[in-house]
Amino acid sequence: MNVIFMGPPGAGKGTQAEKIVSEFQIPHISTGDAFRLAMSQGTPLGIEAKGYVDKGLLVPDEITNGIVRERLAQQDCEKGFLLDGFPRTIAQADALGEIVQSLNKKIEHVINLKVDRSFLLARLTGRRICKSCGATYHVIFNPPKQSDICDKCSGELYQRSDDTEEKVGTRLDEYTNKTAPLLDYYNKREILREVNGEQDIHAVTQQISSLLRGLAE
What is the pTM of this model? Predict the structure, then answer.
């Protein structure tokens, strides 16, 4: 079973991916993980990628696609894989199609976690972190007993600069402009499945699992 997880920042892709790969016993592959593996193994592409990462630059598609190809060719992907964070653009989706075809595989399911923008803003901007011990809270979903005070050490809670409404809005806009067109791309190929990501975590997991099990039969 070869699956792609899609959805905007904060939709819960990482959380759901962990649960699904555990149930179906397939590897969870993100581009970040693939980069780190290639760099730790010292592969030619890994060395090239490291040069860009060390300079704080984006890794070019040519190298990214090559690293993804190497990762999907490994033995643990023989029974399937779950891709998270790749592809991000139509060009990468085209490259992925060529990669899986060259490996005698195909993308079977694209699961899109659908979450409203206002819900995402509330989820992403509500995070608070303790300056002293690093404990994480959320003003709506996991609030501290006392406002702005850590339950564990009484340290001061703060909001990361990346979690402000302006920064989060920019991330969501980037997703909409660059990645959301992939939904139409995969919908035309009749492999896109949408799941309501605003449900309880367990309900989302159950829906995805039932969907994949039904499609696998």
Answer: 0.84
